[in-house]
Amino acid sequence: MLLYYHPASTTCRMIMMFAAEQGIDLDYKLVDLFTGEHFKPDFAAINPNCLVPVLEDGNFRLTESAAILRYLADKTHSAAYPNDLKQRARVNEMMDWFNANFYRDFGYGLVYSQTFPQHKRPSEEIQAGTVAWGKQKAQGWLKILDEHLLGPNKPFVCGENITLADYLGVEMVAVGDLIGCRYSEYPNVERWLKRMKSLKSWPKVHEAIDGFAASIKGTPFVTI
């Protein structure tokens, strides 16, 4: 199986982490996002969305990170995507929660608009409003994650065992590292982040994004 990816991509890293931790053998094809390779005709023919990741398994091609995670988990019979109907529904629910609620405001509203030029809004007024709105909404989502979805006793977002929802969700929360977010007001989130970052594959998978974070350290950001 071949994964078109870039290590700076949040949605690629969740697949890289899952594959590394689960021992899934993938071939990796770098698509250079920083030179705009994903917009060129050769890659647009592979994914007209001009986005990574893309998974190829023989003549089968799949886009969208959550779909790729589910496919890989089913193909390898991973316990991280349980067969029990209700347990699987809970994993799906949490993956959708991160994707549809949290990531929109935290990732695209607060973090990326300040760190990647292509996400900066067209005027200072719109930019300031976007960042302020993203921060306010993200704080609300983090409070829900901390108090209701994780709580003081659950080691992982769906209970006692790590699932796809953890692999997906942790990458979306960890993008806050780029702007120096601190989660002391959300101790259950902080605890869960620490547990996920202790996985053996974390340092290797995050080498590139950690390097980028170091390059912008000291930049004044609106943060949490």
How are the SSEs placed, and which strands pair?
Layout: E1 2-5, H1 10-22, E2 27-30, H2 41-44, E3 54-57, E4 60-63, H3 65-75, H4 85-115, H5 124-150, H6 164-174, H7 187-197, H8 202-205, H9 207-215
Helix pairs in contact: 1-3, 1-6, 4-5, 4-6, 5-7
How would you describe this structure to a colleague?
Helix 1 (10-22) packs parallel to helix 3, helix 4 (85-115) runs antiparallel to helix 5 and helix 4 (85-115) runs parallel beside helix 6. 54% of the residues lie in helices and 7% in strands. It folds into two domains: 2-75, Glutaredoxin, CATH 3.40.30; 85-215, Up-down Bundle (Glutathione S-transferase Yfyf (Class Pi), Chain A, domain 2). The protein has 224 residues and is an alpha+beta fold. The radius of gyration is 17 Å and the shape is globular.
Helix-strand category: alpha+beta
β-strand amount: 5-15%
**Largest sheet strand order:** 2-1-3-4
CA-atom Rg in angstroms: 17 Å
N- to C-terminal distance: 39 Å
β-strand number:
4
Q: Low-confidence parts lasting 5 or more residues at pLDDT below 50?
A: none
Put simply, the count of helices is 9
Quick structural gist:
The protein has 224 residues and is α+β, with helices and mostly antiparallel strands. The chain has helices at 10-22, 41-44, 65-75, 85-115, 124-150, 164-174, 187-197, 202-205, 207-215; strands spanning 2-5, 27-30, 54-57, 60-63.
What are its keywords?
Glutaredoxin; 9 helices; 54% helix; 224 residues; 7% strand; four-stranded mixed sheet; globular; 4 strands; alpha+beta; Glutathione S-transferase Yfyf (Class Pi), Chain A, domain 2; 2 domains
